[in-house]
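We were asked to recover a plausible sequence for a given structure. The inputs and outputs are reproduced exactly as logged, with field labels preserved.

PROBLEM: sequence recovery
POSITIONS: 394
GIVEN STRUCTURE:
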């Protein structure tokens, strides 16, 4: 396996030196990211039993496959890891397997009861939550216990504690406990998902980032606000507008802020879906990852992940809720690749998805702080603590 890994590393280095990284086009950067994610996540999925031909084929496909095909494979690779993580969480939290089997006949988060805003804290409104949603029974474990058991099963978990970045504004940072291989899904970016058409409803609009460092934007314009998620919780429950997290001092140049409750600018009430989410999710802390200091190198990168909403058993472990009022999510095509053929399946279908983000390891990580390249070089006002992680890329 060491020989395959050496070849893989050489392929990544060649890609990193490509002229595409020196160009300023956002599209080119996105394509380069997908190319890298294709290599990282595909290598991870091969596992320790990889054959030389498999590794060669990954490298060859990274050079030849279309952007669309590589995106599909990245999505499949990430989803494969996410579902594995969710199985571990079921083993940890569900009383027994019969509970999961019975979920199909139990009331779900999408009932005929009136839907209050999943993020009323973001849009205001005085409507009360008329909750008829059943929350499946889980074991009464504290989040720290869940985290430790996940580490025992999966090999790693996350911890939020004071950052080791040598800067006075570093605040809290994200640390991986255990060992994670290159291409591993390290963390979910939690919070409220705003499609481009709803960005005007983000608290503080139009200066949405003035008191909130927990905002992140996908390439497609989707914005995720992690501030309402905060540091998670100690139970599985319905996420509704009555839950307002305590302000926290978290990342660089971030100060204690209060949650701003905004009224929509046009006077309308636009809410989110009511969902049962697992607040003890040990990986729902990507918003605590800091930017590396000068001389340090990022060890994770952002990866778009479109979660298929029809997978109801997995849904509680996806720490996001869509800011919309019962509207269907954008439809995304999913196909099925197989490592031996590397060809798209004709069995494609359009499914409703929740557009989220995860962090993927760009190298093996062991008991260290998780560092993410923020790519802030194009901002008008660059924070004093920011140093480009890659001069050519930034």
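RECOVERED SEQUENCE:
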């Amino acid at each position: 396996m060491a020989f395959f890994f050496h070849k893989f590393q050489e392929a990544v280095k060649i890609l990193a030196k490509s002229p595409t990284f020196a160009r300023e086009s956002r599209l080119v950067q996105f394509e380069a990211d997908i190319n890298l994610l294709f290599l990282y996540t595909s290598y991870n999925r091969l596992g320790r039993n990889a054959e030389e031909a498999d590794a060669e084929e990954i490298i060859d496909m990274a050079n030849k496959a279309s952007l669309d095909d590589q995106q599909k494979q990245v999505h499949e690779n990430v989803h494969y890891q996410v579902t594995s993580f969710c199985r571990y969480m079921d083993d940890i939290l569900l009383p027994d397997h019969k509970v999961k089997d019975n979920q199909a006949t139990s009331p779900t988060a999408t009932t005929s009861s009136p839907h209050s805003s999943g993020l009323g804290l973001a849009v205001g409104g005085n409507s009360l939550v008329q909750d008829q949603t059943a929350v499946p029974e889980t074991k009464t474990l504290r989040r720290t216990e869940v985290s430790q058991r996940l580490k025992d099963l999966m090999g790693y978990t996350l911890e939020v504690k004071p950052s080791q970045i040598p800067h006075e504004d570093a605040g809290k940072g994200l640390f991986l406990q255990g060992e994670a291989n290159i291409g591993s899904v390290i963390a979910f970016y939690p919070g409220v998902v705003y499609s481009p058409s709803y960005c005007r409803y983000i608290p503080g609009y139009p200066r949405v980032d003035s008191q909130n460092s927990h905002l992140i934007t996908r390439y497609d314009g989707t914005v995720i606000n992690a501030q309402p998620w905060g540091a998670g919780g100690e139970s599985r429950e319905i996420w509704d507008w009555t839950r307002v997290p305590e302000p926290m001092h978290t990342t660089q140049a971030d100060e204690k802020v209060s949650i701003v409750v905004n009224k929509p600018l046009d006077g309308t009430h636009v809410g989110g879906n009511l969902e049962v989410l697992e607040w003890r999710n040990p990986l729902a802390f990507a918003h605590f990852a800091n930017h590396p200091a000068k001389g340090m190198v990022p060890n994770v990168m952002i990866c778009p992940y479109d979660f298929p909403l029809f997978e109801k058993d997995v849904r509680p472990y996806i720490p996001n809720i869509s800011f919309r009022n019962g509207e269907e999510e954008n439809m995304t095509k999913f196909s099925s690749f197989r490592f031996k053929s590397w060809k798209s399946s004709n069995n494609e279908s359009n499914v409703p998805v929740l557009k989220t983000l995860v962090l993927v390891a760009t190298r093996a990580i062991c008991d260290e702080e998780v560092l993410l390249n923020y790519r802030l070089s194009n901002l008008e006002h660059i924070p004093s603590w920011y140093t480009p992680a890659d001069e050519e890329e930034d």
